[in-house]
TrEMBL record:
Pfam families: GH43_C2 (PF17851), Glyco_hydro_43 (PF04616). The lineage of its organism: Bacteria, Bacillati, Actinomycetota, Actinomycetes, Kitasatosporales. InterPro entries: ConA-like_dom_sf, GH43_C2, Glyco_hydro_43, Glyco_hydro_beta-prop_sf, Glycosyl_Hydrlase_43. Signal peptide: none annotated. SUPFAM superfamilies: Arabinanase/levansucrase/invertase, Concanavalin A-like lectins/glucanases. This is Beta-xylosidase. Belongs to the glycosyl hydrolase 43 family. The keyword Hydrolase applies. Keywords: Glycosidase, Hydrolase. The keyword Hydrolase applies. Gene3D superfamilies: 2.60.120.200, Glycosyl hydrolase domain, family 43 (2.115.10.20). Residues 310-511 form the Beta-xylosidase C-terminal Concanavalin A-like domain. It comes from Streptomyces asoensis.
Length: 514
């Protein structure tokens, strides 16, 4: 790669189901955040290659009571980001509640409270369109069979111009079952171009699917279709679901995801043009994804990427972190020095991190790397523990635990995957975790924790309790949840009981290339 080219993926982590919009010289991107809070990440770029995380549009998930505990694969699915009437708009589907919308004058907010535009189970992947030619507003969405019993179809509505409600019962405008070979049609993005209504929508599933384009003269159809991006003879599986954006000079580009197992859905940038003969979009290299390409004809800036490192100044954490459920006051304590101070939250689920809402997480990097953090356990409560985890359907963690004899030990544990859709074990049903290595006495109550993440998300754990860095346990292979990539996480907890259980302090969180 040179300064004149870029290499995919441009966002090599789980920025799932991306959508993009340009306002002036600025590009903005959002992505699915599922059950984490804050949600709806907001990224900014000037060149479509280098992106920074500038905030989140959704502080808490609603209804708040339903997200007090983790719902890792639920919540915010496949948002659409638009700019209309001098406002930013984000629509998304909660598969259990319906289609929501928020809006703001400025990308950094303040954003409005979530408004339920259309209620119902299985309503997913919504996208609005304000038609400048007619003044009409429209909404298209897909269906999740797990909730609605149907899928592989797109439903269209007329929408109130203020985006507050749909104005009709809706009509199936694309029936995937009637297109030979098409299945799992979803993720529509709606546009107006050259006198046509366009829907860019993927099909075929996240790991092996393709990107389709549909066009019609009337919003309600009939639509004709074409495959415009597929794997062909490349190593980019399932290239699809994203957004089209046009630069100020008139170049067209398409951002989409690729499913990469534990790393989640990484984001690729593809050149796009409109075929002069047929008027259809041509994405990538004649419909195949590019690995390296000329950069967009935009002013060059310094290299940039979403932040990962953190010194936790004053006990505050950076934008890259999200909780595994809606947070409550007191989980993290601000103070005068650097370092993240997490309360050892009392819980009956101390032996299953998947069930805990108070894990502070960020995305697993897609490139081989080493993750390190400093930890000091202050709690005197027997059974209190804190650590660094790679969290997914299976997980591993390394950290410190206070023993029954009040000594502190370096411990390393893991948990195997649970059955698909199975809830965490009820209180008293037995421990899910198992020791990955023998515990070692940590007399100072401090440790430097390290996870080396190699190819295939294979993780090696290590620690330093004052006598040098030592490896711990066997290799652990990170696993995703059903729709969410594996996460890096920091946590502090204690067994059930009464009274304050103390805290743990994390410092100098670093991620470095291997």
């Amino acid at each position: 790669m040179t300064h004149e080219t870029y290499t995919n993926p441009v966002l090599n982590a789980d920025w799932s189901d991306p959508d993009v919009v340009r306002v002036g010289d600025d590009f903005y991107l959002t992505a699915s955040s599922f059950g984490r809070a804050p949600g709806l990440p907001l990224l900014h770029s000037r060149d479509l290659v280098d992106w920074t995380l500038i905030g989140h549009a959704l502080e808490r998930l609603e209804p708040a009571a339903e997200f007090r505990t983790p719902r890792h694969d639920c919540g915010v699915w496949a948002p659409s980001l638009r700019h209309h009437d001098d406002r930013f708009w984000i629509f998304w589907g909660d598969p259990d509640r319906g289609i929501f919308q928020i809006n703001a004058r400025e990308i950094r907010g303040p954003w409005s409270r979530p408004l339920l535009v259309k209620e119902g189970k299985g309503l997913i992947d919504p996208c609005p369109l304000w038609d400048e030619e007619t003044g009409e507003a429209y909404l298209v969405h897909a269906w999740a069979r797990s909730r609605a019993g149907v899928k592989n179809r797109l439903t269209g509505h007329r929408m109130h111009p203020e985006g507050t409600a749909v104005l009709d019962e809706g009509k199936v405008i694309v029936e995937g079952d009637r297109i030979p070979g098409w299945f799992t049609l979803e993720g529509p993005k709606l546009y107006r171009h050259d006198g046509w209504f366009w829907i860019l929508a993927p099909a075929g599933g996240v790991e092996s699917g393709w990107q389709g384009a549909f066009r019609a003269r009337d919003f309600f159809g009939p639509y004709e279709e074409r495959i415009v991006l597929e794997q062909k003879d490349t190593d980019v599986n399932g290239p699809h679901q994203g957004g089209w954006v046009r630069t100020p000079s008139g170049e067209d580009w398409f951002l989409h995801f690729q499913q990469k197992g534990a790393y989640g859905r990484v984001v690729h940038l593809q050149p796009m043009r409109w075929d002069a003969a047929g008027g259809w979009p041509v994405i990538g290299d004649e419909g195949a994804p590019v690995r390296e390409h000329r950069r967009p004809a935009l002013p060059a800036g310094p290299p940039a990427a979403p932040a990962t490192d953190d010194d936790f100044p004053g006990g505050r954490f950076g934008r890259q972190w999200s909780w595994t459920a809606n947070p409550e006051a007191g989980w993290a304590t601000q103070h005068s020095a650097d370092g993240l101070r997490l309360t050892c939250l009392r819980t009956a689920d101390a032996h299953d991190l998947r069930a805990l809402p108070n894990i502070l997480t960020q995305r697993l990097p897609g490139d081989p790397c080493a993750v390190e953090v400093e930890l000091e356990l202050h709690s005197e409560e027997p059974g209190a523990r804190a650590g660094l985890t790679v969290l997914g359907d299976a997980y591993g963690w390394i950290g410190l635990q206070r023993g029954a004899d009040r000594t502190v030990h370096l411990v390393h544990r893991f948990a195997e995957p649970v059955a698909a859709g199975a809830p965490p074990a009820p209180c008293g049903a037995g421990e899910r975790e198992r020791d990955a290595a023998h515990a070692r006495l940590a007399p100072s109550g401090r440790a430097r924790l390290r996870i080396e993440i190699g190819a295939g998300a294979r993780c090696r754990f290590a620690y330093d309790i004052g006598d040098g860095l030592r490896r711990s346990g066997p290799v652990f292979t990170a696993t995703p949840w059903r729709w969410v990539g594996a996460l890096l996480g920091l946590f502090a907890l204690a067994p059930t009981g009464t009274g304050h259980a103390g805290a743990a302090t994390f410092g100098e969180f670093r991620i470095a290339p291997l």
